Amino acid sequence: MMISQMNSLSGRIAIVTGSTSGIGLGIARALASHGATLVLNGLGDRAAIDATCKALAQETGAPVHFNGANLLDPAGARALVAETAQALGGVDILVNNAGIQHVSPIEDFPDDKWDAILALNLSAAFHSIKAAFGGMKARKWGRIINVASAHALVASPFKSAYVAAKHGVLGLTKVVALEGAEHGVTCNAICPGYVWTPLVENQIDDTAKARGLTRDQVIRDVLLAAQPSKRFATVEELGDWLRSCARMPQHRLRVPHCRSTGVDCALSLVGSEGRPCLNNCRVSSSSAPGLLASPARAV
Ligand code: NAD
Hints:
The chain is of the alpha/beta class. The protein has nine helices and six strands, in the order αβαβαβαβαβαβααα. Nicotinamide-adenine-dinucleotide is lined by residues 18-24, 41-44, 70-72, 97-100, 120-121, 147, 149, 192, 194-195, 197-200, 298-299.
């Protein structure tokens, strides 16, 4: 890789929410390896998190910080942005990735799970964007990337809260894209199909119970059934996609941007001319190599 490419995010301050694990950690790695100063966030064992930060800094050469704000609380989202801006001078890249899942038929769906999924998967993105937006506009540069899901586009049974929250994330993305367009601030959402992470592993048993299937049947006939590649996407593929989104000049984000990375669906929304562009990737990979196949029923 050329040095200029490697340092293309040098000087940019990036927050990745929910980056102590899974997709968020893959995104953080991709941004740090291209020079961004990273603020990791998430829950978990503090000693393990400190070791992750240290390893990431050594591996990439980028400064890596940690903020353990609990994003279930709006005050946590606001504090994450405010403390980062105060300590590092601003927030240039905001990746709203933290998310949780619960699988249950609607008549049994626990109220507290509904509230928590809406609070973390949707409202936390609103509160962190609200806190970061003014600074991005003032500096006339900002990249906001919301990690949605194929479930922002399609539904599956037993995932009422998750599907509702992820559809909401796309609506939020479109509004923020429109409001940021004249100010050098872009907002995009990505809608991956299944990526092998703890969030997916943790729902297999509940899905098996809800549908009366075995684990293997859940993986083959539910999770991967509509995933065109018939394999799980990787966190590295997601990280690569996000990194290019963060680096992209605004004028190149005016059109739907969709790349084949093995992710089963990706969606770009941008409003730099006041018109958000929606590409839900409903194209066949054979007719349009380089674009992605139909959205997977997922996650
Ligand atoms: P994961 O369980 O591996 O990681 C979730 C992260 O969120 C962790 O770092 C965790 O500590 C953090 N987190 C949880 N509760 C939090 C809280 N209250 N405050 C702050 N951080 C908190 O999950 P993942 O699979 O990497 O999912 C990441 C995102 O990607 C989610 O928004 C998910 O909906 C989305 N997504 C996942 C897949 C998939 O197949 N894994 C597919 C599409 C979209």
